[in-house]
Design goal:
The complex is a heterodimer of chains A (584) and B (151). Chain A is built from 24 helices and 15 strands. By secondary structure, chain A is α/β, with parallel strands linked by helices. In chain A, the strands form 4 sheets. Chain A has a 5-stranded mixed beta sheet with strand order 10-9-13-11-12. Chain A has a 4-stranded mixed beta sheet with strand order 2-1-3-4, covered by helices on one side. In chain A, strands 7-6-5-8 form a 4-stranded parallel beta sheet, with helices on both faces. Chain B is an alpha+beta fold. In chain B, a hairpin with a 5-residue loop joins strand 2 and strand 3. The mean pLDDT of chain B is 89. The chains are: A alpha/beta (584), B alpha+beta (151).
Chain lengths: 584, 151
């Protein structure tokens, strides 16, 4: 068909009303009798959050992107675009949209937002399953070597070389082996795996089949968070279609190789992202990690050799097979090859998923695709990279290239790609407290350093944010952090002190002002805020009055705002709304 | 809630193998009843020859399982990093205040259950709250009042 309408319908698109937009397009296209010559493609999210993104492709106008499309705008758009042949300027994707995509290199995300994830033909038309054909024509050993040569490293967190992992498993002789796709994306602040599964599930499946062929496994399991219902349902559809077409099942592509994939839903435990805990969970047990070695590559699921790769890692495989390891390893830096997808969030102008070549600096990411800070008046303070295992980096570290070793040197880690930008309204001590409370909550309780040590750290951080901190607390945090790092059983515990350690390293002055002056410069720690208006700074704009949910603010035009402390519920809505630091 | 043992047995029979089925089985039972009733635990224990303590071990380890009835609607407030930076804690506190319950509790009229979740994976729309399967992003506190009225 010569006309096409692409509608981004991932979780965020749908929450913004994409389903209704799609329905209206159908009605309007019918009304104008264009529907028979127009294909509506329901894609996953493209990465940028622009409420509903719609692309319209016509022979006359080419492909044009509209952003912030509301259901009620559809009638106008269809009439103007299709009938009159004129795009509506008001909805055209603007400079922010262009900037967001300009410096990206989309390999893993190349299909996201472009194809219909529920239609295997769309995937096939975009080079789908070419990689599998190439792989099956090679020997398993050659496939392992190709992946090793590409120097792809695991995208789930630790960055272990994927080819090495496959090789270990390849070398073990066993009647049964397993490939597990780790889609238990529990890291708060990361959502690339969800978007890949929602936007291009076949790519992950193809990666798993190739992995199975390489190591000699016939069974694959996708372990996916139950919080991702849309991803799970699209995966189910994709697996069914791959089965129908003979890419899964017995004698794949007429070879002797057979492979099946099942889905296991996680039940809500962060620690299950850890390999051995994930295996325990699939076996129906509590997700407690085990001592390694033996590594899962030797003794994994049901005691059989198992490789566990993350979603993004597997989505890279098909590109490596088609374009070759040399091509892949030509992207990036010495120790980090290829691209990495980051979930850009927090106080940046453009939030969403960004795929950049390794070696891009943190600054380039924030001020390039991110478009800089959301509010010009409130400057950058820190960026949190790598989630609960990562760290908070200040302005002085922004020129660090994004690659495994360089990030490790700063105290943060690549992690799974969480990238949360914070401005001066975020308190770094509170941030450390936040992550520590997360890891305390998610600790499985098996080993003492993690179960008890993290809890002690949290108690001290709570004291500091409540204004009861003492000078000796800083030493305590440093000592206990290093013992936890050295002695915890698994990666969750080993890395859990990182957010605290990095904030201590780069933001010591904030700890000191909490402890010595009982002040939170960011105005984030509720117990240290007085909730009074500083008249010198107040511009009488009334914004605080408008956002206050409890009616605690008195304000009239041209008058200073005043906070009534009896009614105030200390929710900080006024502080968040005020751009002039007029409430302390 | 009255549990029909035959229903539980039917759920178990759906699985051909008995290995590793405990978590999906409990998920099925929770889908059916909205929570995992005590009576069902006894039946599973007998059918699969697992000690009840091991079943409780699973139920209490994973955040998703409930052993008490749930409200008509479940509100999940995201407490991920991005939501935290954008005011997710305030959203949770305020919702607790409005509903008069704490997280993991259900309102007296049985209408709402409230939960915190670590990350819903839509950080670009922070702060985020989910009612049943409907996502609400870029929330303000006032919008919560409207949301609660809507259901």
């Amino acid at each position: 068909m010569e006309n096409k309408v692409f509608i981004c319908m991932g979780t965020s698109g749908i929450s913004a009303g994409a389903e209704e937009v799609e329905k209206n397009f159908e009605t309007e296209l019918k009304r104008h009798k264009i529907i028979d010559n127009c294909l509506i493609v329901r894609t996953g999210d493209r990465g940028l959050f622009r409420d509903v993104l719609v692309d319209i492709e016509t022979p006359k106008l080419g492909r044009i992107t509209y952003e912030f499309v509301k259901p009620e705008d559809v009638a106008n758009i269809v009439e103007s675009h299709f009938v009159n042949g004129e795009p509506i300027k008001k909805f055209l994707a603007g400079d922010d949209y262009k900037q967001f995509f300009k410096s990206q290199m989309r390999i893993v995300l190349s299909n996201c937002g472009e194809i219909d994830p529920e239609d295997i033909d769309d995937y096939l038309a975009n080079g789908g399953y070419e990689a599998l054909k190439i792989a099956i024509a090679m020997t398993p050993r050659e496939v392992v070597e190709e992946v090793t040569k590409s120097q792809l490293r695991g995208r789930g967190g630790a960055g272990f070389p994927t080819g090495k992992k496959w090789e270990f498993c390849y070398d073990v002789k066993s009647d049964e082996k397993y490939v597990i796709c780790n889609a238990d994306e529990g890291d708060p602040g990361a959502f690339m795996d969800r978007s890949i599964l929602e936007g291009d599930p076949q790519a992950v499946i193809e990666g798993m089949i190739i992995a199975g062929y390489a190591i000699g496994a016939n069974n694959g399991i996708v372990y996916c968070r139950a919080e991702y219902p849309l991803a799970i349902s699209r995966l189910e559809i994709a697996i069914e279609q791959a089965n129908e077409r003979g890419y899964l099942g017995n004698n794949i592509l007429k070879s002797k190789f057979s492979f099946n994939i099942t889905i296991k839903k996680g039940a809500g435990a962060f620690v299950c992202g850890e390999e051995t805990a994930l295996i325990a969970s699939i076996e129906g047990k509590r997700g407690s990690p085990k001592q390694r070695p033996p590594f899962p590559a030797k003794e994994g699921l049901w005691g059989k050799p198992t490789i566990i790769n993350n979603v993004e890692t597997l989505a890279n495989i098909r590109h490596i097979m088609v374009k070759g390891a040399d091509w892949y390893s030509s992207i990036g830096t010495d120790d980090s090859k290829g691209t990495k997808v980051f979930a850009l969030a927090g106080k940046v102008k453009n939030t969403g998923l960004v795929e950049i070549p390794m070696g891009t600096t943190i600054r380039e990411l924030i001020y390039g695709s991110g478009g800089g800070m959301v509010k010009k008046r409130i400057p950058f303070k820190a960026v949190q990279i790598g989630g609960p295992s990562g760290g908070c980096l200040p302005e002085s570290q922004l020129d660090t290239p994004i690659e495994y070793e360089s990030l490790n040197k700063t105290g943060a880690i690549m992690g799974s790609g969480g990238f949360v930008v914070m401005d001066e309204k975020t308190c770094m001590v509170d941030m450390a407290r936040f992550f520590q409370s997360f890891t305390v909550e998610e600790s499985c309780g098996k080993c003492i350093p993690c179960r008890v040590g993290l809890k002690r750290m949290l108690e001290v951080l709570e004291k500091i944010t409540e204004g009861n901190g003492k000078a000796e607390h800083i030493d305590f945090l440093q000592t206990i952090s290093s013992s936890i790092k050295d002695t915890a059983l698994c990666a969750l515990g080993n890395t859990a002190p990182n957010p605290t350690l990095t904030t201590l390293k780069y933001f010591m002055d904030e700890y000191k002002s909490h402890i010595e002056d009982k002040k939170c410069v960011a105005n984030a720690c509720v117990d240290l805020i007085e909730f009074v208006v500083i008249e010198e700074n107040c511009t009488k704009c009334g914004r605080c009055f408008k956002v206050c949910p409890s009616g605690a603010i008195d304000w009239k035009k041209k008058e200073y705002a005043k906070i009534n402390n009896d009614k105030c519920i200390k929710c900080k809505a006024c502080i968040d709304a005020c751009d002039f630091k007029a409430i302390k | 809630m009255e549990v029909n043992p035959a229903d539980i047995k039917k759920e178990i029979e759906k699985y051909q193998k008995k290995e590793g089925i405990l978590i999906p089985l409990l998920q099925d039972i929770q889908d059916r009843y909205g929570y995992v009733p005590e009576q069902s635990i006894e039946i599973i224990s007998e059918e699969l020859s697992i000690f009840p303590v091991d079943i409780y071990g699973i139920l209490t380890f994973y955040a998703q399982f409930y052993t008490t009835p749930r409200g008509e609607h479940t509100i999940k407030v995201c407490q991920g990093t991005a939501c935290h930076v954008m005011g997710g804690k305030e959203i949770l506190d305020y919702t607790e205040d409005k509903l008069g319950i704490s997280e993991r509790e259900t309102t007296k009229d049985g209408k709402f259950s409230l939960e915190r979740v670590a990350c819903l994976g839509c950080c670009g729309m922070a702060p985020v709250l989910v009612v049943d399967d409907d996502f609400y992003g870029n929330l303000s506190l006032q919008e919560i009042d409207e949301l609660i009225k809507k259901y």
